[in-house]
């Protein structure tokens, strides 16, 4: 497990927003998706996912609704709001600038 | 959109906390189940899968807490927790809570009620357009000692200065009238004024119109504008009232409009004007023709003017000074005056010469109220201090267990704010109740007794400031404790406690001082109340009944009126049980200040001139017999005093003593006096008898009265009084029947037993005395409780010291005595200071100068016995408060006292 990377502060929000941008998802699925797509490199402490979801909902970026899951069980599905899409765009460009900057610094030293 | 989402989720978080909590639990539960299933699918046993899933998840409770935080309800949760905790504490200490809430409630309630009253009657301004352009004009009276005012001709001279004034109006002092509408005669208040009245004030009638200048000419049909309040209360807000003809003082009057809402009278001081009538209608309504002449004694008009644009008060004053000089030269004989004074209307509340008195009365009332509040607050402070000390240990424990200071302060503050809120609610309820019961008293004046929002804000502010100030101070002090000694249990014994000049000692002295002052005040009020209950009236009240009518409504001349009344009197006298009956105009409770001139008395110059006023009662034969007023010297009025006989009068003892300067009242018989207004040779009245004083007023105990035969005074009788050996209440019915029999068109002005009549005439002073007495009693309770609490607290802090003394072998008496001595010194200092303050207050009350003759105010006397009683009471409460805890401390086993926390 030591080759897994802890998430940088604040990036979890970005990952959640990006993940549910495609389709509404419930919490467990979001955690699975992040882990799969990052080839198990990014470790999301599953417990910390929920406070982040609630915070995003509180801020109005995402909205939650109860629905039936693929196994026909009750689940809370999260989807992006309009403001959430805008926020995702801003966060993405921010992230790109940050990683580009960091890469540059690393490349020159 | 985002705002909508935020609002929705946040409202849901707030309102549906329980549901959100359940949802969150379900969501997390689902997650762990799914993870368990996934792991099971990958080959783990169910148990191992569950273990693994939980490990992946991390702390479930921690996540829940984080979620709650994320939703922003954590702060609310802790507030709820604090509130619940505080509520539990307050309920557990219900004795403390009840005491604090009732102390605050009494303080706030009394304050709100009195503030409402004072605010309504003294400080509420009228709504006027451009008030800065309004001025009041007063022609200074040519007779010194009188109140400045204007005669009607002087007003016309002022109104002619249209270069200075855009508009001018005059209004006569309100007068009592009666009006007949729908067959019932009712009393009302009328003001006579000009057609320009409303335009000067910048107001509009709320219905119909004001009367016009064409209607304000002598001989015109009389029209009236109804006061808005009268329209609402007496005419049921009916719009159809416009055009209706009623009869005022028997004269047909057509109502043309309703005055503006909120404008109650020219001088807004409790008396509400029901009818506005043109000044020219005064003679038609029965006023003597001299009312409209230029005479100093007819200067009862108040004049208000609206300045022209750009004209200053100074310019108006300059113009009026010129006019004043001209009038003085031109009317040397009639009424020269002494110049004209111009005041900005905003600087005048009632009258420049009366405002000082009004302010003095108002400030005395507010000072008393302030003292009650001060006592209430210091009581509360003491209670909180006692509680703070008692909880010192609890607080230390909580601090030691890791509570932050902020948490503790927040917690204590919540508790105190809840206390204040409770006090505030109790206070508002009390104020509401007090005002409601005051409104139920049938006062002879209408005071707008409503709790308005400013008053409510005032009460809330008081309670919050009190709560925060006295709640936070002990809270801060309590949390600044040094942990170790307090936990060890000796936090209460510091050597510094023995210093003399401590806050607590000061608190004791101040509390005692204010208590004495309040009790001194209370004794004054109670004196007044006692006087009102035990007043010796000096005339028969039991088994006497009276009926008053107004013969003008039957269209009678003076002679016919007299004959009709005499017929009623004869019929009443013939009724079984009636011992005697008599006719009169005026009863001992009436007060009419007729200026009189006494023959041979010292010159009428100096400040006393014009102050010889007397009440005139026009009585018929047998009056003194029915009313049982003894004649001390000379004779009573009888049939000899006919119309063409020499004019004679019986005067009251006080009038004989004060106006005729006779130490020997008998020598007054045979001397003469006359009304100031009548200078003819035949106006002199000879004194034929002196009657014993009658007392009907608390503030004016020795009235000057003269009784004249109504056939000689040209004032027809209005009232029949009769004494019966049977039930007086039944006699009232008989009298009403007899009056109807003589002439069915004669309306009943009032018909009641003398007892009831006296009772009603005393209702206002009795209400005031009861009110002030109640306030004093309230102060007494608060002062007693507070004093006891302060002293008992101070002594209980020394119980450990007492224990040590006992352990060292002091005798019980000695130990108690040591403490009692210290407290005694404090109580002594406080009592002396309080007595001194009370004396100063009484002297200040006595020094209030009344600028007008005819108005009396209550002058308290210094009653040494009452003062001593008050001092003894306070000293007793103080010493009892010291003795009881000291003795209890001394009874305790020294070992227990030493070991005790």
Major sheet of chain B: 6 strands, mixed, barrel
Cα gyration radius of chain A (Å):
15 Å
- Strand residue content of chain A: 5-15%
| Oligomerization category of the chains in this entry | heterodimer
What is the number of domains of chain A?
1
Uncertain parts of chain A: none
Please give the alpha-carbon distance between the first and last residues of chain A: 29 Å
Taking all residues together, what is the mean pLDDT of chain A?
Answer: 82
Largest interface: A-B, 28 and 31 residues
Distance between the termini of chain B: 62 Å
CATH superfamily of chain A: Winged helix-like DNA-binding domain superfamily/Winged helix DNA-binding domain
Widest beta sheet: strand line-up of chain A:
1-3-2
The proportion of residues forming helix of chain A, as a percent range, comes to: 55-70%
Helix content of chain B: 40-55%
Strand content of chain B: 5-15%
* Structural Rg of chain B: 38 Å
Structure description:
The complex is a heterodimer of chains A (109) and B (901). With 109 residues, chain A is α+β, with helices and mostly antiparallel strands. Chain A contains 4 helices and 3 strands. Chain A has a single domain, classed as Arc Repressor Mutant, subunit A. The longest helix of chain A has 27 residues, at 82-108. By secondary structure, chain B is α+β, with helices and mostly antiparallel strands. Chain B folds into 4 domains: 2-72, no CATH class; 141-338, no CATH class; 357-534 and 764-899, no CATH class; 544-760, no CATH class. Chain B is built from 27 helices and 22 strands. In chain B, the strands form 3 sheets. In chain B, strands 3-4-9-6-8-7 form a 6-stranded mixed beta barrel. Chain B has a 6-stranded mixed beta barrel with strand order 14-15-20-17-19-18. Chain B has a 4-stranded antiparallel sheet with strand order 2-10-1-11. In chain B, helix 5 packs across helix 6 (94-123). The longest helix of chain B has 36 residues, at 355-390. Chains A and B meet through helix 2, helix 3 and strand 3 of A and helix 1, helix 2 and helix 4 of B.
